[in-house]
Amino acid sequence: MAYVITTACIDVKDGACVKCCPVDCIYTGGRTLYIHPDECIDCGFCESACPTQAIYEDRRLPAPLLPFLAINREFFEPQVSGLGAPGGAADVGAVTCDHPVVAAWPAQGASGG
Fold first, then answer.
1. Which residues contact 79 (CB under 8 A, 6 or more apart)?
2. What letter would DSSP give residue 7?
3. Is the pLDDT of residue 112 over 60?
4. Which among 50, 2, 7 has a CA at the least distance from the CA of 25?
5. In the predicted model, is pLDDT for residue 113 greater than 60?
6. Rounded distance, CA 86 to CA 76, Å?
7. What does the angle CA 40 – CA 42 – CA 44 come to, to the nearest 5 degrees?
8. pLDDT tens digit string along 10-28?
9. Is the pTM of this model over 0.90?
């Protein structure tokens, strides 16, 4: 995995990262966005575009946010969204589910669009 979306995106889902991703690897869940770990090409465009600073390179993820490595990966597995490796978010569209950790996260005020 190259980049990871973390807590600052929950209930915000600004979408600037989605617009700039050259490989369409950022998927929309119910409350947050998720980067597909096998589709990300480690370009960093998403990190620089994120207005809430929710995206980190996996090697620079602050210790309190380390669980989001697994959260982003597990979102695509059968027990969560079942998306697998669809090869691009545009053809999938938004899904209503989230990883259980994100679904249980306390509501945050939306500050983005």
1. none
2. G
3. no
4. 2
5. no
6. 9
7. 110
8. 999 999 999 999 999 999 9
9. yes
